[in-house]
């Protein structure tokens, strides 16, 4: 049995897409969804999906080893960041080398780094007049948005597209690919 933990801060549509994709796989379990945001939509989704949820605060995340210990105790094989908006502490990265992945709503290395998350990314892409955007799935290392890239997919942007339009196109790509890539990593890389 492979065990996944998902970190999410917002709506949780990617977390739900992953859960639904893996629902019939008897070899994979989503053991836990963790969030820093007590208002996050992902909490309701997790309840509907019967997945345990942990809401934690900043201090616990950055100033204690409790989250790392919990993930190790639960024998988590892969940590999946799905719209998680906090920097991952080094202690967590070191406990799960090449076992933490993230999805970013743009084609890294462009439109990554501090302040570039969620809707801000799509606003910047439209403001720059880009003709394409997309998604990047990557390993998480100590440098924000700079871990090794696993997969990218792109979509065309027209000059009439608003940031909301770009968000819709990018989310469609996310839901189509993130669950599949998670499934592949669990199968092929022995994580
Ligand atoms: C997704 O578009 C994800 O790529 C982005 O947040 C959104 C979460 O949506 N993540 C980042 O910006 C991380 N830097 P969701 O809560 O509906 O899955």
UniProtKB/TrEMBL annotation:
Q: Record's Pfam families?
A: Formyl_trans_N
Annotated positions binding N(1)-(5-phospho-beta-D-ribosyl)glycinamide: 12-14
Metabolic or biological pathway: Purine metabolism; IMP biosynthesis via de novo pathway; N(2)-formyl-N(1)-(5-phospho-D-ribosyl)glycinamide from N(1)-(5-phospho-D-ribosyl)glycinamide (10-formyl THF route): step 1/1
Under the GO molecular function aspect, what terms does this record hold? phosphoribosylglycinamide formyltransferase activity
Xref: SUPFAM superfamilies: Formyltransferase
Q: Which CDD domains match?
A: FMT_core_GART
Q: Reaction catalysed?
A: N(1)-(5-phospho-beta-D-ribosyl)glycinamide + (6R)-10-formyltetrahydrofolate = N(2)-formyl-N(1)-(5-phospho-beta-D-ribosyl)glycinamide + (6S)-5,6,7,8-tetrahydrofolate + H(+)
Q: Which InterPro entries match?
A: Formyl_transf_N, Formyl_transf_N_sf, GART, GART_AS
Q: Which domain of life is it from?
A: Bacteria
Q: Which Gene3D superfamilies match?
A: Formyl transferase, N-terminal domain
What Gene Ontology biological process does one annotation of this record name?
'de novo' IMP biosynthetic process
Q: Where is this site: Raises pKa of active site His?
A: 145
- Active-site residue list: 104 (proton donor)
What is this enzyme's EC?
A: 2.1.2.2
Q: Which UniProt keywords apply?
A: Purine biosynthesis, Transferase
Q: Where does (6R)-10-formyltetrahydrofolate bind?
A: 102
Annotated function: Catalyzes the transfer of a formyl group from 10-formyltetrahydrofolate to 5-phospho-ribosyl-glycinamide (GAR), producing 5-phospho-ribosyl-N-formylglycinamide (FGAR) and tetrahydrofolate.
Q: Which family does it belong to?
A: Belongs to the GART family.
Descriptive protein name: Phosphoribosylglycinamide formyltransferase
- The primary gene name is purN
């Amino acid at each position: 049995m492979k065990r996944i933990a998902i970190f999410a801060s917002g709506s949780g549509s990617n977390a739900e897409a992953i859960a639904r994709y893996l629902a019939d796989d008897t070899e994979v379990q989503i053991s836990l969804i963790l969030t820093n945001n007590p208002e996050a939509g992902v909490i309701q989704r997790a309840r509907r999906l019967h997945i345990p949820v942990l809401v934690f605060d900043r201090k616990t995340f950055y100033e204690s080893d409790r989250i790392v210990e919990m993930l190790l105790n639960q024998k988590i094989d892969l940590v999946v960041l799905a719209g998680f908006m906090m920097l991952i502490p080094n202690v967590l990265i070191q406990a799960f080398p090449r076992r933490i992945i993230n999805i970013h709503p743009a084609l890294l290395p462009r439109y990554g780094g501090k302040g570039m998350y969620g809707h801000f990314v799509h606003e910047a892409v439209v403001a720059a007049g880009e003709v394409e955007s997309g998604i990047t799935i990557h390993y998480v290392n100590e440098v924000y948005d700079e871990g090794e890239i696993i997969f990218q997919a792109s979509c065309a942007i027209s000059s009439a597209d608003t940031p909301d339009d770009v968000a819709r196109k990018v989310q469609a790509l996310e839901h189509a690919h993130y669950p599949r890539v998670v499934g592949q990593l669990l199968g092929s890389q022995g994580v």
